[in-house]
Amino acid sequence: MSCVHYRFQSRLTYDSLQFEGLNITAGELKRQIMRRERLKFCQLKISKAQTDEEYTDDDALIPKNTSVIIRRVPAAGLKSSNRRFVGHQAGPSAKSSQTGDSSLLSLEQLLKTENLAEAKASEEDKLKAVMYQSSLCYYSSR
């Protein structure tokens, strides 16, 4: 039995994949690794561990006892599920999340409140005020 040693870029240790023959194609290696690691909805990029040369063709032959590095990349055509924080406005938002209760403080009043923990306001407005107040030292005009 021949084998190829592989590791994902984020891992420290190598795993071995056994196969018949002297060589294995890059495409077959990818399929076996995806099956073994139970990966879905991604593509794999394979490169030699010693030279960092990438196997771009799925028909490329990888000799036995070779060490390779595997990189996961999102599959083409799929939307990324990552949500990125866009950032908040430097000023108070014009819309407040009040539900009609007049006893709650408005967002503009919350921005000037020192003790937000005991303020009578919705949690969403309190969080907006905290985010705004925490950035004041960075955006303050002198």
Automatic annotation (TrEMBL):
This is E3 ubiquitin-protein ligase RBBP6-like. It comes from Danio rerio (Zebrafish).
